[in-house]
Amino acid sequence: MVLDTVEYPACYRTVGCVGVVGFIPALKREAFSLILRKVGWLVFRSVSYGGPHRVSMEETPGLSDQYRKASPWPLFIALGVPISELGLVFNIFPVAVGGLLLFCGCIAGILQEAGYIAKPWTALSVMAGLLFLAGAGVLYGNLLVDVDLALRAYALITSGGILLAAVVAGKLFVPKRGITV
Predict the structure, then answer these.
(1) 108, 126 contact by CB (below 8 A)
(2) How far is CA 20 from CA 23, 103, 179, in A?
(3) Same-domain check for residues 49 and 83
(4) Is the predicted pLDDT of residue 146 greater than 80, yes or no?
(5) Which terminal residue of the chain has fewer beta carbons within 10 Å of its beta carbon, N or C?
(6) What would the pLDDT profile of 84-137 be if each residue is shown by its tens digit?
(7) How many domains does the chain have?
């Protein structure tokens, strides 16, 4: 028995739930998408949400037809930087590099899962460039301060190099598939 059927605006339909809980994440997603389109990042494609979505009292609040399962990416994003920092604190270089690779790879994965990018290679190459720049900045800053930051700089630069190699290998060897939405 349907008690109330109401048609909600697009920001509510995005996450498929009613009220403030569904409205705020949808608003953030729309704002982020508009900002990226305004900046001119062609890496990100627009996401279409389909026609009007009818919400009734029988539906489970907080769940939608678009998102059927929880994403594993946020957990690994949250662990990437602390793992890298643990590697730096205990002077274990491969752990520091691995944490940065985990962090960057998961960011590319969550962007692809959310539908902002079709393939992760461009996002990974941008992150590799940012890691190179951050590493170069830390290496330059190491000359100006009394604290030894060389291990951190080398971890950033090495992570950027490995990401760049992964991007080249991915673009060359991963088969191209059609985009399914």
Answers:
(1) no
(2) 5, 30, 33
(3) no
(4) yes
(5) N
(6) 999 999 999 999 999 999 999 999 999 998 889 988 999 999 999 999 999 999
(7) 2
